[in-house]
């Protein structure tokens, strides 16, 4: 039972795994915030990152299910 995780390219270098895609073991109560913090990020970092679950925007505290596809995205603006 796993959750697939995709990291936005600018986040990869800051993760513990240093991988653009990772897999985490699913467990009851697992949330995107838990996955994010486990990779070495802080609560403050989480405020600047958007969560996507199964191609839909979601919250950091939404419960993950076995087989979910989780993405962490960063908004990039240009001018």
CATH topology: Ubiquitin-like (UB roll)
pLDDT < 50 stretches: none
Specify the structural class.
alpha+beta
- The share of residues in helices is 10-25%
DSSP strand count: 5
Note the gap between the termini.
43 Å
Let me know the CATH homologous superfamily: Beta-grasp domain
With helices defined by DSSP (H or I, 4 residues minimum), what is the helix count? 3
Mean pLDDT: 95
What's the helix-strand series? EHEHHEEE
Percentage beta strand = 25-35%
For the report, how would you describe the main beta sheet?
A: 5 strands, mixed
Task: Walk across the major sheet and give the strand order.
Answer: 2-1-5-3-4
What is the CATH architecture annotation?
A: Roll
Question: Could you please describe the fold and organization of this structure?
Answer:
The protein is α+β, with helices and mostly antiparallel strands and 79 residues long. The chain is built from three helices and five strands, in the order βαβααβββ. The chain has a five-stranded mixed sheet. A hairpin with a 2-residue loop joins strand 3 and strand 4. The longest helix has 7 residues.
Task: Write a short abstract of this structure.
With 79 residues, the protein is an alpha+beta fold. The chain has helices at 9-12, 32-38, 43-46, and strands at 2-7, 21-25, 49-53, 56-58, 69-74.
Which labels suit this protein?
globular; 79 residues; 3 helices; alpha+beta
Question: What's the structural blueprint in terms of helices and strands?
Answer:
Blueprint: E1 2-7, H1 9-12, E2 21-25, H2 32-38, H3 43-46, E3 49-53, E4 56-58, E5 69-74
């Amino acid at each position: 039972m796993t959750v697939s995780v995709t990291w936005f390219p600018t986040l990869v270098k800051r993760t513990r795994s240093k991988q653009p895609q990772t897999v985490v073991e699913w467990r009851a109560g697992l949330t995107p915030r838990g996955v994010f913090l486990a990779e070495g990020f802080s609560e403050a970092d989480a405020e600047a990152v958007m969560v996507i679950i199964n191609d839909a925007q979601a919250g950091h505290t939404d419960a993950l299910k076995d087989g979910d596809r989780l993405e962490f995205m960063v908004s990039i603006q240009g001018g």
